[in-house]
TrEMBL record:
Keyword set, alphabetical order: ATP-binding, Kinase, Nucleotide-binding, Serine/threonine-protein kinase, Transferase
Record has Nucleus as a keyword: no
UniProt keyword Kinase present: yes
Organism: Streptomyces poonensis
Gene3D superfamilies: Histidine kinase-like ATPase, C-terminal domain (3.30.565.10)
GO molecular function (one): protein serine/threonine kinase activity
Pfam families linked to this entry: HATPase_c_2
Protein name per the record: ATP-binding protein
Length: 159
């Protein structure tokens, strides 16, 4: 596997893009050797869902798109960042008893810490922000095996 791998997708700030972001990241991680049914894979999908949801819901239509960047360094550190063009940084909302939302950053922070990672928020040069996580990469590197052509002898053995 290469020392550094990157993938990126830009999506419209629309609720249907949350699922698209989650699916995209899951596909990239599967290509890089993370089994789709692993516990860390499910955790990463939940984190991406929360990050994308925040980019859609809390930019108040001022960010027409958001970008999801995924990077893997030396099979040691996974970085995922969601960038939007809205200048306001996320903030923790008061946890009122009747409140149905506002806990996304708490969830992201807790899941990231639980995996031994860290969360950061930084401004972009264009005036927006990137909310990013860094997690230790725990998936064993799995070389891709070429598909063997089905020969007549092998087909008879398989039947």
């Amino acid at each position: 596997m290469a020392d550094h791998q990157e993938a990126s997708v830009t999506l419209p700030s629309d609720p249907v893009s949350v699922s698209a972001a989650r699916t995209y990241v899951a596909g990239v991680l599967a290509e890089w050797g993370l089994p789709s049914d692993s516990e860390i894979g499910e955790t990463v999908r939940l984190i991406v869902s929360e990050l994308a949801t925040n980019a859609v819901q809390h930019t108040f239509g001022q960010s027409p798109t958001f970008t999801v960047d995924v990077a893997l360094d030396r099979d040691e550190c996974l970085r995922i960042g969601v960038t939007d063009s809205h200048p306001r940084f996320p903030k923790r909302l008061p946890a009122a008893v009747q409140q149905d939302n506002g806990r996304g950053m708490v969830i992201i922070r807790w899941l990231t810490a639980e995996c031994g990672g860290r969360l950061s928020v930084r401004p972009t040069r264009e005036g927006g922000k990137t909310v990013a996580i860094e997690l230790p990469w725990t998936a064993p590197v799995q070389p891709v095996q070429p598909v063997q052509p089905l020969t007549a002898t092998r087909a008879q053995q398989d039947s």
